[in-house]
Design a protein that fits this description.
With 329 residues, the protein is an alpha+beta fold. It has 10 helices and 8 strands. It folds into 3 domains: 55 residues, no CATH class; 143 residues, Serine Threonine Protein Phosphatase 5, Tetratricopeptide repeat, CATH 1.25.40; 110 residues, Immunoglobulin-like (Sandwich).
Length: 329
């Protein structure tokens, strides 16, 4: 840094000397004063507003070093706080995501001692076990943890997916295909499209014909307006069609926001419209269907909105339904 400062001073003096060259023959005193004054002012401005510490700049550590440093710090927290479940799970999942499967396993095991009924941790533990093993030999420990997770959460999508992998490893492609096929109605369209080729590879290995993408389950809805409200559409209003639990608890199971056009309006609700990915519309045996035109344009109900009477539906009887909008008092 000292060498840098000296060279900078010399460069500033040289440039100023050149700039004040016309004053040297007749006004040497003034030129010298200006020279020293400008040099001092430049140094003061740099010291006040510059970044002298940047002279010793060191490049940022590589991403790999940053990850290793974060893992080391997290491991220290876990070592000092062995009952800190959140930190231990984060450390275990970080090892899993970075491919350190065997290192992750004891942390998942300890986390499950702290939270023995957590199905998600059971699936994580099973994943770390089978990823650390041989690709063509199923590990019975992974199988046991997946089975335990599925007893707690029979519809756990990750558990079902990994179960299919273990069945394929065990030379049971027909069973693997069957398990994966049960996932298709539960996942969104993009995931189903990605899963279908794996299902068909398993089906071919089992001597079964390939299958096409099954049709998406959807409820057909026609929304109309009461005759007294014809040609009275509120400006800026939008329509919401939504399904809620039968007891009305919690947020909507599924919802769709639709710009108003000429009535009747045709709508479809499916699992793709589910508000929560883990709580899909057709995972319920029944639900309550309703439509509302919001005068404010927001999802919250308000005075003057148009709303239909609630209609109770059963998931296994998806007959087309018509909802009639009437004005709220």
């Amino acid at each position: 840094m000292v060498l840098f400062v000296l060279l900078s001073v010399l460069l500033v003096l040289l440039l100023l000397a050149i700039a004040f060259k016309p004053l040297w023959p007749k006004q040497r005193g003034l030129a010298a004063a200006l020279l020293l004054g400008c040099a001092g002012l430049t140094a003061a401005l740099y010291w006040q507003f510059g970044r002298p510490e940047a002279i010793g700049y060191q490049p940022a550590p590589a991403a790999e070093e940053t990850v290793e440093h974060a893992l080391a710090e997290l491991a220290t927290v876990v070592s000092e706080q062995p009952t800190n479940l959140e930190a231990r799970v984060l450390l275990a999942r970080s090892y899993l995501q970075t491919g350190q499967y065997q290192v992750a396993q004891p942390h998942f095991a300890k986390a499950l001692q702290l939270a023995p009924g957590n199905a998600g941790l059971m699936v994580d533990y099973a994943e770390s076990i089978f990823r650390a093993g041989k690709p063509d030999i199923p590990d019975p420990r992974a199988r046991a943890w997946l089975d335990k997770a599925l007893r707690i959460e029979p519809d756990n999508q990750r558990a079902l997916f990994f179960s299919g992998i273990l069945l394929l490893q065990a030379g049971q492609p027909k069973d693997a295909a069957s398990v994966w096929e049960s996932l298709l109605p539960q996942v969104d369209a993009a995931t189903a499209q990605a899963l279908l080729p794996q299902i068909n590879r398993a089906r071919v290995d089992a001597g079964l014909p390939v299958m096409a993408m099954p049709g998406v389950r959807a409820l057909s809805i026609s929304v109309d307006v009461d005759s007294t409200l014809k040609n009275q559409t509120p400006p800026g209003a939008v329509m919401f069609v939504f399904a809620k639990r039968i007891d009305g608890a919690g947020p909507p199971l599924a919802a769709k926001r639709i710009p108003l056009t000429a009535f009747p309006i045709q709508v479809q609700l499916s699992d793709a419209d589910s508000v929560m990915p883990t709580d899909r519309l057709f995972s319920q045996s029944g639900f309550v269907l309703q439509a509302r035109v919001s005068v404010s344009g927001t999802a919250e109900a308000g005075t003057g909105d148009w709303q239909s009477m609630p209609v109770m539906m059963q998931s296994d009887k998806l007959a087309p339904v018509t909802l009639i909008l009437r004005q709220n008092p």
